[in-house]
Amino acid sequence: MARMQNKVALVVGGAKGIGLATAQRLAAEGASVFLTGRDADETEKAAQQVGWGAVGLVADAAIAEDLATAVGAVQQAHGRIDALVLNAGLSEPALLVEETPEHFDRHFAVNVRGQVLGMQAALPIMGDGASVVLIGSIAGSIGIPERGAYSATKAAVRSYARTWTVELAPRGIRVNVVSPGPTETAMMAATSEAFRTAIIETIPLKRMARPEEVAAAAVFLLSDEASYIAGVELHIDGGAAQV
Questions:
Q1: Does residue 117 sit in helix, strand or coil?
Q2: Fold for domain 8-236?
Q3: What residue stretches are annotated with the Ketoreductase domain (predicted)?
Q4: Cα-atom radius of gyration of the chain, to the nearest Å?
Q5: What is the sign, positive or negative, of the torsion defined by CA atoms of 181, 184, 185, 188?
């Protein structure tokens, strides 16, 4: 299958987890892939893992200059971006009574500001008919103790997708959200075993998602097979937020 043949893709936050799995899937389906990460060694290793000539770019998703530099590298190499994935994110626990301004600001800087800055940086070289996938979370639709800031950022991502769909429709640029449920990533591995066990019990399929399952959904929405899908939020959650 080569649904992304001759497409140029940029995955912001593509050095690990869902971002890395998405970069791998994009490359396997024919895209020329660029991915970003904050750590130089991790980002280079990720690009080598993706293979197919993938390029790793060091960039902090919350810093406009970093994103502009990354997009500039894509432009110099190919002149355009056909598929954009905005995946960078963080999730740190805190009850409402524990929430600090710094905790709040960290989450919104990466999870929301990063997506806005990513869109602004990429838009000038996105061709008409390009496609965007924002990585959200079912946390944006449900209440999860200790994850208030994280959940609020993901609700904001969903809201931006609606607005950007309307704003960019004249250019034929589609914006959609992929919202995973609990997924087997480093972020989830950092939580307690008790937390993970309790989460799995809430999932009808009784397991977490694999990153490649989320990536498959993202690449479908980026591809021409989804040419009439815009502004949606696709839950990849084993039914957790659906029943």
A1: helix
A2: Rossmann fold (3.40.50)
A3: 7-181
A4: 17
A5: positive
- Between CA 110 and CA 5 the distance in angstroms is 31
In degrees, to the nearest 5, what angle opens at C-alpha 111 toward C-alphas 241 and 240? 10
Q: How far is CA 111 from CA 86, 181, 207, in A?
A: 9, 16, 25
Q: Is 228 one of the annotated active-site residues of the chain?
A: no
- Give the pLDDT score at 1: 65
Q: Where are the domains of the chain?
A: 8-236
Share of the chain above pLDDT 70, in %: 100
CA 32: distance to chain centroid?
Answer: 18
- Which of 150, 164, 182, 238 does the annotation list as catalytic? 150
- Residue 10 one-letter amino acid: L
Q: How far apart are CA 23 and CA 51, in angstroms?
A: 10
Residue 188 banded pLDDT, cuts 50, 70, 90: confident
